[in-house]
Amino acid sequence: MTSFEVERLVMSPAELKVREALGGRFTNWPVVYVLNGTRQVYVGESRNFVARMRQHLTSPAKKSLEVARVILDETFNKSVCLDLEAYLTSLFAGEGKYEVLNYNDRMIDSDYYERADYRAAFNAIFERLRDEKLFERSIPEIENSDLFKLSPFKQLNTGQAVAVEAILEKLFHDLVAGVGSTAVIQGDPGTGKTIVGVYLLKLLQDIATSDPDDLIDADSVFSDLFTEQNRELLRDFKVGLVIPQQSLRASVRNVFRHVPALDPKMVLTPFDVGANTGAKWDLLIVDETHRLSQRANQPSGMQNQKFAAINERLFGPDGANRSQLDWIRAQSTHQLFLIDSAQSVRPADLPAEVQRELISDAKAGERWHPLASQMRVRAKAGAHGLDYVDYVRRVLSDDPPAPQRFEGYDLRMFDSLAEMHAEIRARDAEVGLSRLVAGYAWEWKSKKDRNAFDIELDGCRLQWNRTDKDWINSPGSVDEVGSIHTVQGYDLNYAGVIIGPDLRLDEASGRIVFDRAHYFDKKGVESNGFTGHTYTDDEVLAFVRNIYAVLLTRGIRGTYVYVADGMLRERLRGALGARRRTWTPSFSGPTSVDDGRNQRE
């Protein structure tokens, strides 16, 4: 559709004078431009390129940018340029070759006329810039990286943008009034809660450090927030992002190392917050709030001692059973909680009634922000109107829905674990980020003996994840099995989910039941000695169902399922992609015969 050109020029007054003399699309036409130096890059758009470059030449923050590339096209308009600007910015941030100097205030996903055609042309523009060595990796390689998936330079959908705007408007109002506040963002898996939290933190830093001489586009949803008053309100403003899960926390810290406005020290454990003896945080954003811990036995004796010491210091002798949620509230003036109660996976997680109260209070105070649009799983709603996440959760219940197919989504069930592993390896070779994951239904023997196998089924022998930090991207992970603790909060292209013997179908009652004898997460069944509560099989069953629902909603392009219990496999077969295949291993790899019911397109 488009016929673009890329003009390269040196950033200098003399060069701009030449371009001004040429006029036309350099002075009176919408263009997108890329400015770069050795280590930094900036992407912008303007109707008057020459005038905008003169402003950049006087900016101390952009003094290291030496070369400009101007993308010209006679079909460009404002909407196209904003979209291309955001697209290239997100890819630069995702690759990590350069520090991206952009604010993220304009990273909004907006539709416009013939967008699909323009988007196809964007890929060609990327390849031209890659030819000129501005990029090193391909688009799929960049999009598979954590730098891309967890970047603050992600385009927000309408629901996410509305939530960010409302939260910040009320925050600034509260800062002027000198009062504290608590807000909640609630959403299912894949609705982008983590992205909103990271985006919001970066936007606050942009407002705080913005140059008053910088022109903030009035079309930006957040342009009204870039005021001198707000900059003053954010002077010495202390912010933090609390992430309970170790693996996700490490990945986000790595992202923050590549963003000039952010610092890995902003990413905190709940224990970091509780143990702080310095100034309180002005704002704490808590991701995966449902994974905060109540007073329960911790993974180590040292953590038990820390938990008790923090409670004693913050709340005195009467606060022995306070939770990490109480720490957050005590150590900050403003809090933003990102939550999905259906992703609680251990008895030590924040109790369901506490989560309900948190949500209820936020609703009453008009500070509850639901996210509804599912951004991860590329599955259109089925014939009965259920989206994929709701469907999966109901499939694991004792009141399963009528079977339905999801157009464009590769949902399959396997009778052979070896076959499923072979298919996951094939998908990983095609598009990357394809992994096996499982419930904690097998002992972790290989943790102490690297030569031992943990999962042995159908002649297939596998080990649990060898690392608990960034396992998804670790060498050899395609031949390992990840647990809930290594994948919660992450995206995969394809997930091969092993539903172990910890779930089985009871023939007499027809109910799905929990089998304690085949569950090896000690913290997943442990009684709470501080509250005196002993968890029944039915109570643990709720957590295990949540675990499998989380695992079954990791795959962007597809989900493959193997069920260890034969009766449960037959129960789920119709719901999760009925298929029977024969498979014969060979030296060149697995081959299969499909019965024609494959949903992958």
UniProtKB/TrEMBL annotation:
This chain belongs to the protein called GIY-YIG domain-containing protein
Q: Which residues form the GIY-YIG domain?
A: 28-100
| Pfam families reported in the protein's UniProt record | SLFN-g3_helicase
SUPFAM superfamilies per record = P-loop containing nucleoside triphosphate hydrolases
